[in-house]
Amino acid sequence: MLTPLSLTPSFGFGDRFGLATPGHIAAVRGTGLAPIFAQQSVRENARTGRTPQQVLDEARRAVEAAGWDAPWGADADHLKSLDDLAPFVAAGYTFFTIDPGEHVDNAAASDPFAVLQEKARGVDQDQLAALYLRPDEDQPWGRFALEFLLRAAVKYGRAIEHTVRMYRRLSEMKEDFDFEVSVDETDAPTTPLEHFFIASELIRRGVRFTSLAPRFTGRFEKGVDYIGNLVELDAEMARHAAVTAHFGTYKISLHSGSDKFSVYPLLARHWGKRLHVKTAGTSYLEALRVLARLEPALFRRMLDLARERYPSDRASYHVSAEVDKIPPISADADLPALLDDFHAREVLHVTFGSLLGRFGPELRAALVKHEAAYRDGLRAHFKKHLDLLR
Ligand code: ZN
To answer: Per the residue annotation, which of 15, 75, 77, 194 is the catalytic one?
Structure first.
């Protein structure tokens, strides 16, 4: 049943060519996590040449074929403007992720005080002080000072307004939906105090969101494990968890959740069942693993194009792989191991638009031919993810 999932613990499976849902179903069955089987951003749809309706229809067909009769959701991911809403609403999506990142004033964090005051001219400082300044109260997320409040109000004020607009418009179009606010693609990590401020301002303005995705400290690159200091991340997550517990009305959401095996136990420890995780690229990489094993000639051609396109395709991603560090290949038998190599994974991941543009039909045909291998690979790979969240 396609439905909003509300505060049920949930897991998002992005599927770039509409063939991965059988494997996702095999992995998620019996875990207690509510799945999102259709999850594509506007950017991903543009790169894969699919429409919101196609993405949802393909997921629905697989759901029906597998006899999945529990709740599942469809995520309209990283919606940036009011115009983005309509096609996803019309198609029947249930979960709407709003990304107000373009409206965040990143400079406000370090502007000289005079510049900050100039920018904050429209801000009602007395109201902010009345709402947030409690000098006698130390909280796990920190303590507000007037200067911090001004910086937060300038940095996030327009993003909050934009989110409110998106929420109101969506509420006019649809009765019941999951609403996620994501600031995970901003320049700097979201501090727990900023998280508190954003959540509090949204709630004050009547936005009923079901999940919030902060940007955590460290690097969450696509399709590879966490890069950063886990002890620091653990401590920071404890403070973010105190914020979500304080409000008690929404889940934490982790984006770029593919292959973050070292982070999942921390998520489970701090948030228990109040969480949502998004993955996307890792299902695509599992598809490539099937090709590396069973269609080596096609895989080699794809790898060549990926090497060529990586320098330009990487621009819209946070990735640090280097083409020259991809291990050398002497025989076909060496190919599958590339899917366990950091550099090869990132290079193959961020070039997916280029690869699908050139090899899409061949890739699809190969995956249909090796349907069982793809499903089993996905099941095994996602079991590794989901078991860590229990
Ligand atoms: Zn994201």
So the answer is: 77
311-328 residues labelled b (16+ CB within 10 A) or e (exposed):
eebbeebebebebeebee
**Distance in Å, CA 279 to ligand 1 centroid:** 9
Residue pair 219/227 in contact (Cβ under 8 Å)? The answer is: yes
pLDDT tens-digit map of 275-320: 999 999 999 999 999 999 999 999 999 999 999 999 999 998 889 9
Q: Does the active-site annotation cover 77? A: yes
Sign of the Cα torsion 146, 151, 156, 161 reads positive
Query: Where along the chain do its domains lie?
Result: 10-281, 294-376
Count of C-beta atoms within a 10 Å radius of residue 156: 24
Cβ burial 97-107 (10 Å sphere, 16+ → b, else e) = bbbbbebbbee
Distance 99 CA to ligand 1 centre (A): 8
* CATH code for the part of the protein at 10-281: 3.20.20.70
The single residue of 58, 111, 178, 180 carrying the catalytic annotation is: 180
Catalytic site includes residue 180: yes
Q: What are the residues whose beta carbons fall under 8 Å from the beta carbon of 6, sequence distance 6 or more?
A: 178, 210
Distance 169 CA to ligand 1 centre (A): 22
